[in-house]
Design a protein that fits this description.
The structure holds three protein chains of three kinds. By secondary structure, chain B is an alpha/beta fold. Chain B contains twelve helices and 15 strands. Chain C is of the alpha/beta class. Helices cover 37% and strands 22% of the residues of chain C. The chains are: A alpha/beta, B alpha/beta, C alpha/beta.
Amino acid sequence: MAVVFERPHALCDVRLHYCAGCTHGIIHRLVAEVIDEMGIEGDTVGVCPVGCSVFAYNYFNCDMIEAPHGRAPAVATGVKRARPDLNVFTYQGDGDLAAIGTAETVHAATRGENIVVIFVNNGTYGMTGGQMAPTTLPGQVTTTSPYGRDPRKAGYPIHVCEMLSTLDGTALAVRTAVDTVPHIRETKKMIRKAFENQKAGNGFSIVEVLSTCPSNWGLTPKECIKRLQEECIPYYPLGVYKDVQLEEANADKLAMGGAAK
Amino acid sequence: MEKVLMKGNEALAEAAIRAGCKCFFGYPITPQTELSEYLSKQMPKRGGVFLQAESEVAAINMVLGAGGTGTRVMTSSSSPGISLKSEGISYIAGSDVPCLIVNVERGGPGLGSIQPSQQDYWQATKGLGHGDFRLIILAPNSVQEVVNLVVRAFDLAEKYRMPVMLLSDGLLGQMMEPVEFPEISAKTADNSGWAACGTKMQREHHIVNSLYIEANDLEAQVKKRYERYAVIEENESDAETYLCDDADIVITAFGACSRIAKSAVNKARAEGIKAGLFRPVTLWPFPKKQLLAATKNAKAVLSVEMNMGQMIDDVKLALDCRIPVEFTGRTGGVIPSPNEVLAKLREMNGGAQ
Amino acid sequence: MTYEILLAGFGGQGILFAGKLLAYCALFEGKEISWLPSYGPEMRGGKCNCSVCISDEPIGSPQVLEPDLLVVLNGPSFEAFVPNVKPGGKVFADSSMIDAKTDRTDIETFYIPATQLADDNNLLKGANIVLLGKLLAETGIFTFETVRKALEKNTPAKRAHTIDNNMAALKLGADYQA
């Protein structure tokens, strides 16, 4: 009988430690499928963050480096500059990427570092037990915003893709979600695009994936998906914020006298 | 080979390239500037990478990434910048990644001064970050020795799979002296047995990591590292002695300060004071045995430092209170004069003037 | 033979360059040398001095505190450093920039209007080299040819025309008689 579904080779045959209903597993799988489909596992180095995905080095079959909190883009820069022949990706959460690692993220992007950043945004510090994150929504209750995030005191959430799309070094800045099958397919497409950008030397590619945290949101997995759709996506609109491939294609069309939308 | 005149910082940079250093990541800070400027000019021409990072924090993490692939890599900074790097240094030590870190010391604490100092002895030998770990610390005292020790530093880093620090200072960095570059065979160790450089689908994946969530696992890992440290203490400690055999008073001094101490020893000898100089070349491992041998006949020891007295702790520990140990020095970027040291020697010799 | 030489003035007067020329001359003659700059954080106009040690023996402290030879190009440095010159030492002072005179009789002091001389001969900013010329003439420490070699080593190709100017300044200082 033909095998119709199996574990991607780039994903290790081990049990993930993520909570039931957490969407990290889906995102891991999408990254691994892309690595498999592009046939690049043997020449890829992943960099994991501090946060829920800290153990990702046990889950991806390629060589892995564990970075200090927030520093994954700097570590990835070191790998890529030393070995431009390798494919390099980071896998980071919102606290890691958009709070403690803001400088590393912004500067890797503006340098146009040829790396892929997978940014999992669930609006909370999961591993330390659900504290307020840079992407926590206004009014959202967390263990360190027990009265709900008050932007007058705690500031406003950061829109990472919007911010990074303003930088010339960014090749791809896109926000997706993993709440529905079409969105999951779109996410995989974008991850593939990010790795292809790296192959082509286009620069910095970030795929922001809106994700859930049943344990710290205090909701069932199903309720989490509902919240993601009703509260998170409206605040963080999905879509392509920057795509140099698209811009080039449009420029070509214009040059050929075609109509660019 | 022809001798050339070079600043300590530039000679260091040139030696690093010749020693096969392929990547440099740094952030501007006085008084190490010439080093990064030299590399920014030379690295692209000689097949290397120069990258100015957005911060010291980022630079040291780039070192972790590049070193993690098994590539020869270095960073350099000065005192306040090294404080910023300490997070990354701890991770690098905990991940067993070889690299070279250069500290061209200046006055502290805080923003301090930009003048030469040795105020980072404690930081370098005992406090480069959180956790149980060591760095090999090399302290040159001439531009020629800067060159020689850079080569040794890279070799030691790879031999023991750990970061090595070269502790220079503003005086050595800015000073020009004649220097010769020895024929260096820039052979990098084979790091393919552990480095994250791509599995090529031919082996299990390598993980460069300092996280051990089980306390027992972490303890075992740290103990393994300490077994390596014991071998280093046994084999790699190094010191230079000058007129110690018959010395009543042995001065201990390292780096640039040992130059001042040597001038003071010569002046003291000229007036009949039997002084000698003991100069640790490795600050960790501290050359205890060599110090014991050098002070066999001494009645007292004088630690001369460009700080408020930091290495003196290790001198006292090594001597185990056998003979009195005194201190003289200047701090904040002030360089002590040979005459100040001489005055202290006269006082210790019983003839205070 | 050991020379401890201190050159001092404002930043921008060519203090470090003059010191470098001496260091290179010593290099060509196979001596032990140290050259140590000391200057403030300002790029121009700050205090600037340069210690040069030249010896047949390895150099201990590279910092010159009691110079055998002092080359000095401004008033504050004259006040600060002349008292420290070793007895029997020599001072080469730019009297266009320095009004003071020392009453020390255990040292030899040469007052040369170096800036004026350089300006009069269209050798702008050549005062440092004028003083160096006098130093060479009075000490015989290096020949003009050696200095020329040092100039060639330290002058970028696009500024090669300045070598002759500097040699002229050197001669101007060497020939100067008060």
